[in-house]
Amino acid sequence: MAKSFAGRLADVVREPVITEKATRGMDRNQYTFAVDPRAAKPDIKAAIEQMFDVKVIGVSTMNPPRRKRRVGRFSGERAQVKKAVVRLAEGDTIQLFPESS
C-alpha cells in the first residue's frame, strides 16, 4: 500500500460512476468508481474491501486525457479523473441504489 493513503483509505474512492456502460457491468459483478488520481491499485482494492465489506478479485484503472474547456476568452482544463473498475468475488454485491418500498 502506498504511503499516501495508509491511514485514510476512505479518501481514495470519490464516487460511483453511474453510466449506461457501468450499469451493464454490474450484471457481471464489475463496479466503476471515480478515485483519487494518485491512488494505486492496492489502495483502491483495500478501500473498496473496507468500505463495502466485499472480496475484490481484480482492479482495472484508466486515466483518460484531461478535457480542454473554454469560457469566453479563458481556456483551461477540467479536473483530472481516474476511473477504477472493480471486479468482485461471486456472491458479493455492492448496493449502489437504495431499495424503494
TrEMBL record:
The family database entries (InterPro entries) matched by this protein are listed as: Nucleotide-bd_a/b_plait_sf (IPR012677), Ribosomal_uL23-like (IPR013025), Ribosomal_uL23/eL15/eS24_sf (IPR012678), Ribosomal_uL23_CS (IPR001014)
- Which keywords accompany this UniProt record? Ribonucleoprotein, Ribosomal protein, RNA-binding, rRNA-binding
Q: Record's PROSITE patterns? A: RIBOSOMAL_L23
Q: Which domain of life is it from?
A: Bacteria
The record's Gene Ontology biological-process terms are: translation
Q: Which GO terms describe its cellular component?
A: ribonucleoprotein complex; ribosome
* GO molecular-function terms, A-Z: rRNA binding; structural constituent of ribosome
How is this protein organized at the quaternary level?
Part of the 50S ribosomal subunit. Contacts protein L29, and trigger factor when it is bound to the ribosome.
In which family does this protein belong, per the annotation?
Belongs to the universal ribosomal protein uL23 family.
Q: What does this protein do?
A: One of the early assembly proteins it binds 23S rRNA. One of the proteins that surrounds the polypeptide exit tunnel on the outside of the ribosome. Forms the main docking site for trigger factor binding to the ribosome.
* Annotated protein name in UniProt: Large ribosomal subunit protein uL23
Q: Which gene encodes it?
A: rplW
